[in-house]
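Narrative of activities, Objective 1.

The group set out to show that a structural description can be obtained from nothing but a protein's sequence at a throughput compatible with the screening campaign. Below is one input-output pair from the validation batch, recorded exactly as produced.
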Amino acid sequence: YAVLRKKAQLQDYAALCAAIAFSAALAASVAVLADLGNIGNVLAMIIGPHLTSPLVWDMVALTVFILVALVNFIILALPAWTRSETRIGTWLAKRIKPERADASRRRLAPILAVIGIIAAVALQIVEGLIFSLQAAHVWWHTPLLPFDFIAVSGICGSALLLLVLALTTMKSQTEHSHTTIKHVSRVLVVSLVLHFAIVAIGLIGLVTSSVPAEKELLALLSGDYAVLYAAEIILPIMALVLVVTPRLRLSRITMAVAALLTTAGILAHRMMLLYGAYAVPSLLFTLPESSSGAQLGSWGYPISTGFGTLGEPMFAATTAYVPTMIEVGVALLPLGIAVFVCGILIVLSRSYPAQKG
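Output recorded for this entry:
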């Protein structure tokens, strides 16, 4: 978006956006490795992939996006590299003239931007299909989920960039920075509206459904998970109000708060994506009417607890689970990799834009 719009205000942040995109995709690939379990499963996907598996296509789409994002970052950061006084800059300047680097960026950046958008959309569609094709989970089994993944990716990217803009222009609020925030806010608003439209359609389907599993899910959304689900809806709406109000949009503190509210809301949305799916039994059975004509209701089939020792319950309606510290570390590892890699790329490339007065 920053490259294709050819706006000077956005061009300053193009390399930064590419660094964030590459780092986030690299972190996502690490998260996928945790799902695969061990190196043998990883090698099996590479040596003998099953083309009917959505996870294989997820791996292909993610790999393509990582490569495109890396090449895009190099092309965008190359002019800054050739002009920097670092060792890398001096070494590159002897081999690539700054004017040539500028020409390569002008020629290749738009092409890579289009390829990057296609790869990003394809990646989100494949990610969404991994969930939506699982008919056993009513919370996932909807054709709208891939489109919601696209909307959420736009929300996350624009919210992160909005937070960076708000923090870096806190002391220097110029017309240049105001225009940049306006462009980023526009992407955030469009993505949020699309996301809320998809959520509304899904809720209407739940309310009007007569399927026992979907009724159970609706009861959870208004019961045990009401607070978390309310956070998913209310926090982004609050951010949307802050962003679309012209007077509030001029405040950097307000924009930082809007970005944080959006991030918290999307985090609640992702948590509900898992909790809402696994809290509802995959299989339900309904007993016939009693002799008096009363409905006896529906129950979920018992699930295995994983215990096979004498005296331990082998099946139960629910099972308690507390993650170990190793599991917590594995869950936080992708976030740490994203922050670490992105920090290195920003420092090496000096893609962090200078303040403009």
